Amino acid sequence: xxxxxxxxxxxxxxxxxxxxxxxxxxxxxxxxxxxxxxxxxxxxxxxxxxxxxxxxxxxxxxxxxxxxxxxxxxxxxxxxxxxxxxxxxxxxxxxxxxxxxxxxxxxxxxxxxxxxxxxxxxxxxxxxxxxxxxxxxxxxxxxxxxxxxxxxxxxxxxxxxxxxxxxxxxxxxxxxxxxxxxxxxxxxxxxxxxxxxxxxxxxxxxxxxxxxxxxxxxxxxxxxxxxxxxxxxxxxxxxxxxxxxxxxxxxxxxxxxxxxxxxxxxxxxxxxxxxxxxxxxxxxxxxxxxxxxxxxxxxxxxxxxxxxxxxxxxxxxxxxxxxxxxxxxxxxxxxxxxxxxxxxxxxxxxxxxxxxxxxxxxxxxxxxxxxxxxxxxxxxxxxxxxxxxxxxxxxxxxxxxxxxxxxxxxxxxxxxxxxxxxxxxxxxxxxxxxxxxxxxxxxxxxxxxxxxxxxxxxxxxxxxxxxxxxxxxxxxxxxxxxxxxxxxxxxxxxxxxxxxxxxxxxxxxxxxxxxxxxxxxxxxxxxxxxxxxxxxxxxxxxxxxxxxxxxxxxxxxxxxxxxxxxxxxxxxxxxxxxxxxxxxxxxxxx
Length: 590
Hints:
five-stranded antiparallel sheet; 37% strand; Immunoglobulin-like; alpha+beta
């Protein structure tokens, strides 16, 4: 009998799994580079699935917008089907034949997989320095593109390269934002300028007038020689359709049915040839600085007693990566104790480049009296404009050291140690206080403890009876368990927020809400569809406004779990705060 029962359950589970279909389709099989592909994943089931995990899908070859999530219910031949669609707007990163999928998803312990879809991405005609193919061209890449310019593309290791990114467009656009920034692998990078809003100027490119808006300025410094490539910078924006205009709008599909289309455009990869620094003429004190610099050195005070400190300040100023400048070596300084220098940088960020001042502060202790001289400080760097090494030297600094030999500071016999010793006084214990008799019966603390002990015993007895009463109430136990589980999930979500794990963070927030609702409504979470939740909450007198807020947050989490792009930390923090507020409000409903 038991064997038959288990066999029936297994067959029922298999039948239920067979009722789920996972499909994928793309709205076009051949596109031009820069055009968007609408890629849709459909989860079709005979019942409304309460929780659906995010699908596993590799979209690394594309810039991704979305997904947008939609659901629909259909009835054919008295059979109801529930369909959940995830729609992605994809823009290829490169030309060629690319694959979409297969996508995988696990539901009820079973894995479903879509077929792989192959699309062909056709490169547009090559542009010379961002110029369109001609005045009559109607391709997207000829009317909207990101242009990158480098002030030089053949440099030495450590030499500054200034990159200028510009957005060039011919038709109205809105909602412009950075979609993906280069990681500048192989370079040390410094941002010089980033646009807060578009400030375009009209410029003729290839005989066609464009609106050209600065986007970003970067100073980059190669860290090794060889052929390096700067990855593209991508922006997303929305093309605004206009009534009566044809040209490029006839070729653009709007997969979302609005008047316009969200697109992603990227700059071309930029190659930079990096030469090694020459070995010929390299000074011994050269430590890697590349650029154009000046050197200053000064000491204070110039008249000092033997054993007192002197501060030597060395400043290197100029154009280049000042953070790569190492402290100049002072060499051997007989008659001085030299301590490791402290350093700080004062940056100068301009649209023409990056530079500033690197300051080093040395502490010197003269050990003997008389006139002492600090020798010149040397600093060597490579000047890429002159293609040669240069060595700078400061003027020598004369010090007048008063007194004879410096006191032995390490032995503690110096003037500073003597001055400090005069301030030390032996401790004098209050013997009378130690010998005073202790009379507890006259202490208020003693009688307070005597009264508190029986009160504490009575409190423990009441707490025990209350706990026994709670454990005998299943509904109360469920509510307490739900509160604890929700709190644990919120704490886990806080950790995921700190890690920036957007899909898992939103999944935990969603589980916290659903777990609390399931225990409060005494229903399994798997059967709590949106309609069932709303009905049961209304029957328990929960305000409709609170129910709507809960459903809105659950929908937000559902959307975020399927989005491949990370959500901003500020948005995730707002979701966490909102979830805590709604959980507290549901607790108050009893």
